[in-house]
Amino acid sequence: MWNKIKKKKIILLIGLCFVPIIFIFCLTLFGIGYSIFINWKEITIFINEIKQFQILSWWNYIIKNEYGLLITVGLSLALYCWFFYFVLFSKVKSKETAIKTTDKIDFGDSKWLSVKEIDDISEKINIKDNYKNTGFVFNCNKNKKDLLFNLKNNIHSVIVGSTASGKTQGIALPTIYLNGKSTAKPTMIITDPKGELYNLTSGFLAENSYKIKVIDFRNLEKENTWNPLKLIYDDFIKMIMTNNKKEKMRWKIKYQDKISSLSHMLIDKNIEDEFWNNSASIIIQGIILAILEDYEDKISKNNLTTEIEEILKKELFFNKFNMAFVAAIASIKKVLVEWLNNRKNTSIAKITASQVLVDSKENRTLDAILMTVAKSLEIFNNDFIRNLTSQNDINCNDFIEYSTVLYIIFSDENDNYYKLIAILISQIYQFLTNKASEIIEQKLEKPVYFILDEFANLTKINNIEKWVSISRSRNIFFQFILQDINQLKLNYGDTIAKIILNNCGMHIFLHTNDLETIKYYSELFGTKTIEQISINENKSNISVSKNLKSHPLMLTSELANLKQGQGIVKIARYNSMKITLKLWKDLKLVEKKHISIKRN
């Protein structure tokens, strides 16, 4: 903090070393002058002295002259004194400011957690040990003998990292590995851009008794299939099979709610006027309800359970109950309108659709609504998607009854299927929460982890802000992997984005170029109290003042320049911590033979 004063002392010491040089310079200069003075009549003598550089003769002139020597010494000292005065007593005013750490907390008490404190607030896992802990990895240390990970459980997490920041290699892959190796073996639902997570972990998980499920939106070969109407169909069959009126009504309400939720998610929300979105959603609801009503009428005459089961086997109704069939019906306007209008007045399908059909007698209005429906359902006209969604071998009960991992693979360069991914995630979550509500403790016995890479790029998932508020109590946990916060705000809006972030108890910051995100995390990591020391100089007076001041624990410039393998973590109710990451490719935890397996 005293840099300037120290600098002046150094300058004065250096100047003192130059005093002999100044003396010699003056001695030489005066000697030359004296030689000219005494030899001015015979200038050739002086010229010869110059040619022969007779410096000793010049010095001798002055040394023999007592006044000359005295004047030379005096002038040398005078020059140094002037230099001394100029350096120390300059009339130019100056001010220097320095900061010093302090134990005071007047303006903030944030500080970095120590290694011991980090271990105290998390689970420290030695990869060689057997353990039952599960959670999200956030730190890794390696010594000569052991590889140690820190993970946090019972918490939602958000990772912020730009491309190549280490969010997949340093966080997601170790999280999957450690949970898979745990004796608890939690279920994991993983969004997997390009299939990297699947390729690197599925074989290992299969060898650790996991059921491997894959929905690949790039390639149908050897993948699982998923019908978005399967859960609706299951509730419908339960309604059909029971003779208890209360139970029948309960299951009917359940599948009607699922139809409403699915219909809203199917509509592309790119039109400002909600009328078109809502009307299109109502049409889709009416079609699905009408299909179920027709089938219910067909078997309602049979009261015996065995007869109903025979009809179900014979008719293979589920093979026809898919979104491709719904899209086909919606594409034929005349048939659709007659099919819905010719029903009984008590028909739920007719009552639902009439909200639009009655108000849309004008052909142009109905045409516009049906065009919105067609646009939203056109994805099911794609041969690949029609094949993928017309069958189903994803049994959601597996997520509860067995150690199961579902990889949802997609291309992050093609957003055509993002809507379907959002629907799939939503349906799985709703199934899990419904199952949890049937348990006395209102929570799943085994934890379920949603690891959602590229989450902010997926189609908006309805009510996810409510999910993160209540799902922890259900033993369901989310990890949102983002490139920056603005991605989240763009998709969900400021309010919902804030709710999601506020409900994430662990924030892992790796890197981003987004200034708003950097500022957000600089503020989140907190402030500390520093002592600001100001040194004021004016002529011969030096004054020092000390003030306490607030200072960010991590400056925005420091966050912007974090190196790969470094990160900052903030866990709710604790101070921030500096972390180190080890890249998955360098850990070599999984052998090559684990990389690829046949998917079941």
TrEMBL record:
<keyword id="KW-0812">Transmembrane</keyword>
<dbReference type="InterPro" id="IPR003688">
    <property type="entry name" value="TraG/VirD4"/>
</dbReference>
<dbReference type="InterPro" id="IPR051539">
    <property type="entry name" value="T4SS-coupling_protein"/>
</dbReference>
<feature type="transmembrane region" description="Helical">
    <location>
        <begin position="12"/>
        <end position="37"/>
    </location>
</feature>
<keyword id="KW-1003">Cell membrane</keyword>
<protein>
    <submittedName>
        <fullName>Hypothetical trag transmembrane protein</fullName>
    </submittedName>
</protein>
<keyword id="KW-1133">Transmembrane helix</keyword>
<feature type="transmembrane region" description="Helical">
    <location>
        <begin position="67"/>
        <end position="88"/>
    </location>
</feature>
<dbReference type="Pfam" id="PF02534">
    <property type="entry name" value="T4SS-DNA_transf"/>
</dbReference>
<dbReference type="InterPro" id="IPR027417">
    <property type="entry name" value="P-loop_NTPase"/>
</dbReference>
<comment type="similarity">
    <text>Belongs to the VirD4/TraG family.</text>
</comment>
<dbReference type="GO" id="GO:0005886">
    <property type="term" value="C:plasma membrane"/>
</dbReference>
<keyword id="KW-0472">Membrane</keyword>
